[in-house]
Structure formats: structure tokens, C-alpha cells
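Entry type: protein chain
Record version: 2
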Amino acid sequence: MSSQALSAAATPEESLDLAALLRDSHALEVIEALDRELVGLAPVKTRIQEIAALLVVERARAQLGIGGEQPPSLHMSFTGNPGTGKTTVASRMAEILHRLGYVRKGHLVSVTRDDLVGQYIGHTAPKTREVIKKAMGGVLFIDEAYYLYKPENERDYGQESIEILLQAMENNRDDLVVILAGYKDRMDTFFRSNPGMSSRIAHHIDFPDYTPQELFAIAQLMLERMHYRLSDTACAALREYIVLRCARPHFANARSIRNALDRARLRQAKRLFGTGAAAVSRDQLMTIDAADIRASRLFHGAGAGGAA
């Protein structure tokens, strides 16, 4: 039914239960799952809830015939260091948008510069348009988006991709959401150099680094999903490891923790084989011990690049 028809049918006494609209859309389930799955990130979760609230209000306005000419702009910028959950939140955002009726499919297409920009004349436009076609009805997530713009290289074709993206973002606001992601300082420079792109981004969300306590909680969640557990001494060792790792270069938050746990599992496997026992128990197979953590080079005076 058109907005005009809804408006004609509406009366001043009509009202809608916003909480019921959110619940009936099943978007609340995604928001609650996001809260359970991601440790910390309180400002990010609050902003996602605010965007969901905006969309529910817009949906209510449309049902009562008071919707605007255009849907609200939902293009976003996610800034923060690696491993802070940007891709995960983008995926959940796509689900929320779909369940609230703002995109048709709710899928996520994640790309980088190489997926959009060609290496010779005439190559960039079809590559960019093909990516946009795949993303229609969902969310296009462009990681390290600032690499699209290379003003120092006159022969670079990134600007052509940006112009095509700008047109798609403006002309398909009701069926495509673009999320640009990357380090905050570089994204700020990118937006200053591309005011057209900056003006189309309505929501800027910064992802903070995790605290050591949050990283330990993340590690426990990861281990639980893999059906492992830490011994008491391993818990203490991992807490020490996290503090040491946070101080080293190239730290990638949850990503670095996942890598550390993968290496601990390798050491556990080596340890279990080294016992020479004919059989191992279920408890042994599930337990990461302190030795599996403390074998890391971080505990043995590794150089600045050592993080194993």
C-alpha cells in the first residue's frame, strides 16, 4: 500500500507498539545474539541499538502513512584496529536491516581494493559494478577503504571505483548499504580527501581496543566453542600472556588471541604425544595446561617481532 493510501486510512488516534514491531521483526534476536557473542564493545552495541530503534520508528511512520520521500541513509563507517569485531558487526547489521525490511536479502559481501580496482584502463568499472551487483539487497563491506584513494599515483584507477560507488550509494539507498572500514586516522584522511563519500556516510562507529580482561573473556569463549578448557595454572599463564602480547607490535586484539590459542593447541597435541601413554583421557584431550601457554617466545625474551 502506498504512503498516500496509508495516510488516508490513518486516524489521529492510531498508534503502534514500537517494542512489538521490533520483536515481531525478529531483529531483536540478532541484537541480543550480538550482545552475547561479542565481549565488551559497549559503545558499538549502543549505536547498533540506536540504529535499530531509528529503523523501527521509520517502519512505524511508514505504516501510519507519514514516511518520508526517501529511506534514511544507512551507509556507515567502522573504524578501529584489527580484531575488534568490525566484520562480525557488519554481518549482524546486514541481518538486522533485512529483518526490519530495509534490504531484500541481508547478505554481506566483504571486499578490499583488489576486488574493486583494475590494473589497466577499462578494467575497474566492470569489476566495481560486478561487486555492487553481488551486494545488492544486502551490505557491501569495504575493508581498508582508504586504499581506494591513491593521489600520489596519477595512473591509479581507485578514483574511478569511488565515483561508481558514490553513484550506487545514492541511487540504491533502499536496497544497498555500504560500510567502509579501516584504521581511524587513515579513514579520517580518506574522508577529508573525498567529501562526496564523507557526505554519504550517516553513521560513524568507532570500535575500541579490548582490555586485557575482555581479551581473556574472549579467549574463554573461543575455547568453549572448540570444547577446550584451561587448567587453573593455564588461566594465570594466559592472563600474563595477554598483558605481554598487548604491549608488542602488530597486536590484533581478538585475532591475536585466536592465533595464540591455535598455537597452544598445537603444543598440547605435541605434549600429549610426548607422554608415551597408550591412551589419553577425555579430560586430557580437552585441557590446555600452563606449559602449552608458557612455551610461547613471549615468556622467553623474544624480540619485538616474536609473538608465538
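Comment: Strands lie at 76-80, 108-111, 139-143, 177-182, 203-207, 229-230, 287-288.
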